[in-house]
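Researcher: Next entry in the queue.
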Amino acid sequence: MSFSSIMGLLQFLHFLFVASLLISSRAISDQIPKPYVVYMGNSSPNNIGVEGQIQESDSDHLQLLSSIIPREESERIALIHHFSHAFSGFSAMLTDSEASALSGEQDVVSVFPDPVLQLHTTRSWDFLESDLGMNPGATHTHYHSSTDVIVAVIDTGIWPESPSFRDEGIGEIPSKWKGVCMEGHDFKKSNCNRKLIGARYYNIQVTSGGNQTQIEATKGSPRDSVGHGTHTASIAAGVYVNNASYFGLAQGTARGGSPSNRIAAYKTCSEEGCSGATILKAIDDAVKDGVDIISISIGLSSLFQSDFLSDPIAIGAFHAEQKGVMVVCSAGNDGPDPLTVVNTAPWLFTVAASNIDRSFQSTIVLGNGKYFQGTGINFSNLTHSKMYNLVYGEQVAAKFTPASEARNCYPGSLDNNKVAGNIVVCVKDDPTVSRRIKKLVVQDARAIGIIIIDEDNKDVPFDAGVFPFTEVGNLEGHQILEYMNSTKNPTATILPTTEIKRNKPSPSVASFSSRGPSSTTENILKPDVMAPGIGILAAVIPKSQDPGSVPIGKKPSSYAIKSGTSMACPHVTGAAAFIKSVHRKWSPSMIKSALMTTATNYNNLRKPVTNSSDYFANLHEMGAGEINPLRALNPGLVFETDVEDYLRFLCYFGYSQKQISSMSKTNFNCPKNSSQDLISTINYPSISTSTLKRQQKAKVITRTVTNVGSLNATYTAKVRAPQGLVVKVIPDKLVFSEGVQRMTYEVSFYGKEARGGYNFGSLTWFDGHHYVHTVFVVKVE
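Model: Structure for this entry, 781 residues:
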């Protein structure tokens, strides 16, 4: 045998050895128990509120576990969480093979690993209520008259001492409330009141470390240790708090969208994330407790989106909707790329983020006298009178560090001796190094301050505390680098932040806000709407700020400025609670429709809404537009999307009759002809269709509207369509009389001459008083 043959044989044997190791290690890891969710569909109506029957259901689930877990591992025959109110199921420690065996059981709809989900105000509500800031003197005395709508916030808990949760002037707790105020080592029943009527926490939380999943106990208390839950709760329903500010910035009256409605906090998350099974348990409890609206500023990563029967938020929200409880969710913070939107089930109300007419600027002064307006929040003591040397990251690189890493201010990339005492310019070529990391790297190297050049996030103010910080886009960044190259000793200073009021244009889509179309189905337009999510002042934990974040001589602030779709979501929650307080009998889909069909798609320059790149925003970025809560009180017509619509959606999506029957526990049967194309036909307040071929005949979509305005009204249709797309409405006039409350119409789309790709437009029904907008997206191939 030749030498080359021997070497080839050795390489082959080595490959077999490595492959066998990989297979055996995978086989071993497959048999390591980890948390799984076992979803078993709708709860039997007999189980709800009957303690003995709930315990019987509990024992049934334990019996099911004992049938597949070996007797010698009997300690695993235990439920982590048990769901029995809005829906049925449990979570438990299972191996992959045990999970696979359970998925074949008759009553089981789906079995999936417990996923880890991520956590995704003074001026914002005034901005929304004054026709997008164009009527600064507008006041609305009739606003917030009711006090019995209950908002559940599923998040990191709550800080009950915040002034935003005081209960002065609020009436007795509604009799429908069946929840609890759980005590903990740092939380007493007396921390709840007539405003914060309930608080729960959950002992088991899942965190992922490497390839291992661990179960650990959270701190036994509903108290917020992160600040996220407190912030979102106060945006949704915080009371009026005068003279609120963040160390003088954003000063004014802080309040939520429904200041006189109630809050119930459900602590499911820590800084590390949120267990999907725990979120399911919290939704189950919230429905049983009697809440009206659930706010969830949480979601799966857009990189790892799952289908609707292995997404805990989608599963829980489906059953909440069946019980008449609306669920509002954030769209995610993975923009500006398309196909990043999460929480896309049609029964969820999915919210994108926008700016408001207020910004926070930190000015750069260069040695040549030029000024540049940067974005950021800093409380430094730098002034015009003293300038500092200005250096570029790659010019002060540590030995043997690639210039690209130093330019991006990677950890360990800078020479501390060259950085100390200077202002450092860093860029963002690499999205893996966050602004916070860059700031810490430069700060640890004893720099005076930092200027970041970042086109993508220049619209979102980063809070740098007392450290001089500012951020500019590429245009300003190029001019700063040109100045640095033009002189031997470039200098600069960074001034403390100032607040810019009546900022224009606003609203605009936030750079970070996740975009559609939905990667699961393009035939439902997501996100649904847009709401303020940049620079929002709301309540926080007074001691939650990082060291160096509090200005010298100041006490920690009870309010802070944060950005994210996490902040946009509770704005819609608050608006929905406001509408619910006026229209008590309206279903979740009616409230959702009202907010969508009355949303605005123009800014305070009276021009179409733009995105952070100053282009006109499309419907995949902003949904139906920016919510207008006051206009939504009287929408004229609404689209009612009922449970049968959602069941048809599941049929069209491709789920089996058995799965859908288990989910609904009804006699509903899937239509004989089911395909993804038919998803467009469910009665949704917007229209999206992904399959209009140029040569095919017109595609017809049916919609039904319910009159909630004047008994006698005539609506006329007006279509705005892009050039080449032929859109017709039949009939183009809807006549409502005293005996006619619902009417159906057809919209046809013909694309022979249309532009390829996504075509965006709208259909508006007008009766002389109400404008009922239905936006549409048609993908032409």
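Model: The longest strand covers residues 757-766.
Researcher: Noted, moving on.
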